[in-house]
Design a protein that fits this description.
The protein is mostly helical. It contains 19 helices and no strands. It is 71% helix and 0% strand. Helix 1 runs antiparallel to helix 19 and helix 4 runs antiparallel to helix 5.
Length: 433
């Protein structure tokens, strides 16, 4: 009787932990919808508290006896500690505000915290199925809302045109790209995982997500998925030379394909492409001009001080809220924005935007910070990506990091994190059964 009672108590704890994880994810996923209903804009910062809290609760309550689970969690936590030390060092070197350090750290590590929370719970098959069902519901909500915005509300006819088709990511500059990315990811996941549903239904949902991508004018999302598929194929190659050749070719293909799609194959020239690439890489010439210490190449110019999402526009947009908390800015982003404004490509496509994920991490945190982040991604790839679907999703994140600041978008990244973590838990249970 005592053993049975203990098991029942443990199951209650597991349900509570998984529910808290889901709620933490929802605070980021639906934040823009809640703000649109009249809640103050500070709601967009709530996930910075709920995700670490969910991770902490899961770690405290989890009593997994699996040595593999414990090892994975410990390795990721060690990687997060190393990244935290480096971001603090960068902040101290560059006199960045404490709020810069906290926000930049959480923006970049929230997905890993959520993965830790999921990985440390010894989930049952019932728990994973419930989490899967809720994730599918969330995916359908954004998809249906986007189709409603296009075909019923006709938001594409208002100012902003197709960029107004954003799903749940309302009132967000790149919301149409984020919404399309989440939608196509959901469609791929549903097509591959929901085997209990008929093929015609899964295929229909997948096609609907492609329609979402097209009507929101986010064709780069399709190109990213194509390149990620090629890269996944490259990982199957045993010859390192072939792997490098296919990888470089795939990355170049995404730039060419999206540029052609966005410009209707008209007036294309090599000079224009070179001009676009020059704009894309302008941050790599501007950022070093602000170096003031021999350590800057290693530790960057400080969290939120260059061309990541925080420094690029988030500090500016929420300055009234963050300035009293000691937020700091550097004129790097202003210098880059001035180049963007003077360029013909400035408002044409995010494909040639100098504000993109990997450049932002390098500019803010230097080579050491970028290396530490890649180490965390490497741990996820090796320890948690247990099938090709998970690896494919991780590769799409990598490619998106070359285009825009999507790797710092909480709604998108937490969606990807919960997908990878859930898929790992599902495969773990299959191996045990």
């Amino acid at each position: 009787m005592k053993v049975e009672a203990a098991c029942q108590q443990q199951r209650k704890g597991l349900i509570k932990s998984s529910t808290i994880v889901l709620l933490a994810f929802a605070t980021a996923y639906f934040a823009r919808i809640i703000e649109a209903l009249g809640v103050p804009a500070a709601i967009n910062f709530l996930h910075f508290a709920t995700v670490p809290l969910a991770c902490g609760i899961a770690l405290v309550k989890a009593r997994s006896k699996s040595q593999r689970q414990l090892t994975i969690v410990q390795e990721i936590l060690l990687g997060l500690l190393i990244f935290f030390i480096l971001i603090c060092a960068s902040g101290l070197l560059n006199n960045a505000g404490l709020i810069n350090v906290v926000l930049n750290y959480l923006m970049l590590t929230e997905p890993f915290l959520l993965i830790v929370a999921i990985a440390c719970i010894p989930m049952s098959l019932t728990s994973t199925e419930k989490l899967h069902c809720w994730l599918v519901r969330f995916g359908f909500i954004s998809l249906l809302l986007a189709l409603l915005q296009r075909f019923v509300l006709n938001l594409h006819l208002q100012e902003g045109l197709e960029d107004n088709i954003k799903g749940v990511f309302l009132n967000q500059g790149s919301g149409h790209v984020v919404g399309a990315s989440v939608s196509l990811t959901f469609g791929t996941y549903y097509l591959c995982i929901a085997k209990e549903r008929p093929l015609w239904l899964r295929a229909s949902v997948f096609i609907a997500t492609i329609v979402h991508v097209l009507v929101s004018d986010a064709k780069q999302v399709l190109a990213v998925f194509l390149v990620a598929l090629v890269l996944l194929f490259c990982t199957k190659l045993k010859d390192i030379t072939e792997f490098v050749k296919y990888s470089i070719g795939a990355i170049l293909a995404v730039f060419i394909a999206v540029w052609l799609a966005n410009n209707g194959f008209l007036a294309w020239s090599v000079d224009m492409t070179l001009e676009g690439m020059k704009l894309k890489l302008v941050g790599f010439s501007i950022i070093p001009s602000f170096y003031h210490s021999p350590l800057n190449p290693l530790l960057g110019l400080g969290p939120g001080h260059t061309i990541g999402r925080l420094g690029g526009w988030m500090l500016r947009d929420y300055w009234d809220l963050l300035s009293p908390l000691g937020a700091t800015q550097l004129s790097v982003s202003e210098a880059v924005w001035s180049v963007v404004g003077a360029s013909w490509f400035g408002d044409k496509s995010s494909m040639f935007s100098p504000f993109f994920g990997w450049a932002g991490i390098w500019g803010d945190l230097g080579l050491l910070g970028l290396g530490a982040y890649f180490y965390l991604a490497f741990l996820v790839w090796c320890r948690l990506c247990s099938d090709d679907l998970s690896r494919f999703f991780l590769l799409t994140i990598f490619v998106f990091g070359l285009i825009f600041t999507q790797i710092e978008e909480p709604g998108y990244m937490l969606f990807m994190a919960i997908l990878v973590g859930l898929q790992w838990q599902t495969n773990r249970l299959r191996r045990l059964s």
